[in-house]
Amino acid sequence: MVHDRWQPRTLWQFALLADLTRAELERLFPEPPGDGDPELAEFFRVVPVRSPWPTGPDLRFDLYHRAEGGPSGWETGEWLVTEGGRLR
What we know:
Helices cover 18% and strands 23% of the residues. The chain contains 3 helices and 3 strands; from the N terminus they run βαββαα. It has a 3-stranded mixed beta sheet, covered by helices on one side. A hairpin with an 8-residue loop joins strand 2 and strand 3. The longest helix has 7 residues, at 22-28.
């Protein structure tokens, strides 16, 4: 579960490993349906699914692409420690 204070509607977020390269995922899910935070694009492709109901819930799939050369900084937790934030 992810807390996002900028998200006005209920959002269910799923992180899935895909046995595809980054280029393959970008071809399958081009922008705007497949987008993402530029800082996180090296780790996964964001695919949002908007609910047809006014109050949601919306879905978001974070599709992790196959990492070259071992685990990424996202997989090891390095990104969360160095770039992520904390709720107080």
